[in-house]
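User: Sequence in, structure out. Go.
Assistant: Echoing your sequence, followed by the structure tokens.
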Amino acid sequence: MLLQLHPSPFELLIKLIEVVIWPLTLLAILFYFRRSFQGVFKRMGSLKVDGSGIAMTFEKLLEDTKEKFKKTKPEAVAKGTANLHTQNEVRTPFEQVMDIKILMENSLKELAEEAQLSTSGKTSITLAHELAQNNVISRENSELMRSLLILVNSAKPDISRRQAEEINVLYKAI
């Protein structure tokens, strides 16, 4: 019986392929979808990495949304003041933000139904886009609503009162 101390070149090649195949596949996928990934990473801004995974920091998203509103409706944002805590002392800031989300979603659904657009299976962000395409709302308002919806959808239960008040100011500016 012949004992082989060193693997053959063919066996070494097979082992090398086994080790390298998944990283190469991942690189090929990233290369193929590089433009899509670039857009995602630009929108994400800063990241927070912790035990729960990777997430965009809420504060960065809030600042980006405020900037978009300031460019589009500077007078409404500058004049806007929010007194959520005087109206809803019992409700948490997160609950107040969720109230804003529900109000926005209901408004978009009502507008879509009035315009005889189908709402079934569509997100509020999609509805805002379709309402603008059908000239029910302006493209400007559609973009602001979509930005604000993304922001409120990102809100976590530990959102601060200041952040909730800033979101309310943005909501009232639409």
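User: And one key feature?
Assistant: DSSP finds nine helices and two strands in the chain.
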